[in-house]
Amino acid sequence: MTGELLTVYHQLRQQHGPQHWWPAETVFEVMIGAILTQNTAWRNVEHAIANLKRANSLSAAAILNCSVEQLAELIRPSGYFNVKALRLRNYCQWYVDAGEFDELQNWSTGTLRTALLNVNGVGPETADDILLYAFERPVFVVDAYTRRIFSRLGTVDAGIGYEDLRSVFETAVKGDARIFGEYHALIVMHGKDICKTRPRCTECILQNQCDLMVTP
DNA sequence: ACCCAGGGTCATA
DNA sequence: TATGACCATGGG
């Protein structure tokens, strides 16, 4: 990794320490969590996943065996429960049809990404979450924090598109999945634990400007 | 009471 | 291709 992106990585790493993401017990839990966390606080997703576990429904077969109404009720705390229930079903149907992890593991990253994006309810960020944290492919997950931080630092234009910003990171970072995962985790952690609650806190290392993270 | 969170789809111009 | 409406809970 080189340049400003390396500098910021070290600053975030020094401030927050190692993250060891994604918080999940299995690769399937990563996939479900990636869908449930769309525009939703992770805390709410934890409740939904706990409900699925309690109902012994955290598997593709169990989810496909539920009615959408039952599924929606289980994931209610994660918000958008009606659309997300359909998205989970769409994903699980594709996953089972494709041969699940043991088969998908053999697909190239490009083929797998295209297939994921073809599932209704899986967009670029969700696909990259799954590619990185479930399949351990070296892709960078771009989120709202990434664009906000690096456009304000002047690294990229504020209106840069998802694919262009992903390309900037993947070109500069050039590492394995572990480093991509740590970087994304650090960006999210910086947003929700420090800058969100303490605008202008003096502990922030990003040019001493925690207001970088405050919504414009 | 108000604001937003680890997005994505669909209709419209 | 580019905006806008819509989805919905829980914590600050």
**Rounded radius of gyration (Å):** 18 Å
Helix vs. strand class: mainly alpha
Strand content: under 5%
Query: Total number of helical segments?
Result: 12
Average pLDDT score? 90
* Number of β-strand runs: 0
Biggest sheet, in brief?
A: none
Helix content estimate: 55-70%
Order of helices and strands: HHHHHHHHHHHH
What distance separates the N and C termini? Answer: 30 Å
Low-pLDDT residue intervals, each spanning 5 or more residues? 197-203, 210-216
Which word captures the global form?
globular
Provide structural commentary.
Residues 197-203 and 210-216 have low confidence and may be disordered. This protein has helices spanning 3-16, 27-36, 42-54, 60-65, 68-74, 81-98, 100-104, 109-117, 124-134, 144-152, 162-173, 177-195. The longest helix has 19 residues, at 177-195. Helix content is 62%, strand content 0%. The protein is mainly α and 216 residues long.
